[in-house]
Amino acid sequence: MNPRRFTDPAGGPEYAAAGDRRGGDRYRTVWRIAKVIRNGDAGLWRVRNMSNRGMMLAAEVPIAVGETLDIALSDTVMLRGKVVWANDGRCGVAFDTEVDVADLLKQLAAEQRALGYRQPRLPVHSQAQIVAKDGTVSRIELVDLSQHGAGFVHDGHFDVGRELDLILASGVRRRAIVRWSREGRGGLWLTQPLDRADLESIRRFEA
Question: Is pLDDT above 50 for 69?
Answer without folding.
Answer: yes
